[in-house]
Amino acid sequence: MTDRWKALSERLQGETEHIADYFYDKLRLCQALQLTFTETRDHIVMGIRSQELAVYAMSRDHCTTATLLADLQEWQRLYELRRTQFPTTARPHVVPAAKTTKYEQRNTDTRRTADETPSTSATPSEGPTTSSDLPKTSTVRCYNCGGTGHISRDCPKPRKPCSGCQSTTHSRGQCTVNPRKVAPPAETYCVELTSRYPKVNCFMKDILFNDIRATCLIDTGSSDVLVRIGLAERSTSEIRKVCRPLVTVGDTNSPGAVTLGETTADIAVDNASAADHPVLVVSDDSIPVDVIVGRTWLNLPHISYYKRQDELVIETLNGINSTALSENVSEESTNVYAALVSADKPTMTPLLHTDVKIDPGVTEAERGSLMTPINEDRDVFAKTLAELNCTDVMKMNIDKVQGSDPVCQKPYRTSPTDRRITAQILNDWKSAGVVSDSTSPYASPVLLVNKGTGEKRLCVDYRRLNQQTQNQPYPMPDIDDLLSRLAESRIFSTMDLSNGLLQIPRSEEAKEKTAFVTEETTARFERMPFGLKGAPGTFQRNMNTVSRGVMQPGQKVHAIKTFPQPRDAHELTGKDVAYERGRSRRRRWRCPT
Q: Does the chain have fewer CB atoms within 10 Å around its N or its C terminus?
């Protein structure tokens, strides 16, 4: 560690060393010591040979190493350009004269006058002490009367009294009776320059251009990759002289610049790279950075890029090898290969006995016999959200109060961990068809709440939307009535719907109103979510409609009592035969034992 600190402190820019080479070498030493950006910036600036460049760099505000290097290179470029336009010439060395006071200068002028006229005095005068000793041409002003030719000590007029105590023995500044009020010390305030634009430019990135580190600008509006000729020559690339017009903003008939040539280079940005990529070479003054990465590199099949908050992510797609693409794909190939993909839903996998809660005393043979009728109705059992169906009995609608405006709120700020969990939940919901992308004017924020199991549940804050939603009254079951009905019962059975609210679809107008916003995207619910006003009543209405005429009070117990006694093993597993026999009710069967 001591050797690293010594190497860092001794690393200075060489007399002919390029600023970029010094920058990256010094940056490597700082990264080896795991220094902060502020410490890294200070060490880099202290090792710069040019004092003017160091002072300029210290006066600038930098947030990343990329912006620091861009400032250093831009200053170096302007300095070289100015030096060629204004060549410096050697000037004689002038010793600065000693600084003299006003009275010393006056005495010097008096001595010069005395030297020019003959004098019998052997020693020079020590200077004036009274008004009579001053030269007649002096413009000495009296502070007492305001006249010239004498000082206040020799003024013939009465002395002005002190404005504080009216005494003539002292001046106002020496008054002890009524001294002047001392002004309070000046207060300092920290003033920071604010800007509408972010300090961090996420489109500025580090690049490896033929294994030489430089700074690049990710420009999706540029059709090609452009590089400065200085970097191209340092990377020992073979430059072929080709002049091509570069059209920029303005007149398309008049090109803004002309290329100096073209070459190929290995380009790597973040986690993506491409070998032998075609590059256009331009002059150093044509572009503000070393390299401009355009669409010819960004649109490669194995490269993906997207913006997330203040970060531009560039990565390689999984399963695609850039080397294999460059070697095996021929530009002259005209064959197109297509794959037939079925749009049907995937076949549901059968349920296993591990998916069902069964009494531990049941044998393996009995377990298999039980799973057979369950898998015959496999479509009514959903293991995942993707297998969840919707009812066709009704759709939920949201009737808003007259005169209400669309609810549009900002997303709640969350931690990076919660953002990843939210994105994963939304991806699962989109795959299952529960939510879809939205361009609705409505936007309600989301938040994560903790479940009892320790997992996270994604909830939408619909409080603002519920305030402008009309009531939809519907009678709900009373818990006291339900308990009184079950007071004398000993065997209880329940039927629990899997995500019951999500099995009720919504009208198209209601889908727009349930749109929500996260820190990364917007979406809307295709089905009825939790937290909406009127959702419990709509769900209860749907359940009453579906069960009307099917689940009458006491019918379950009666069906169990009248269940037919099976005569063999085939009838035991053949529920259709038993159902038909029980339905006919031609004869009364004994209750099974």
A: C
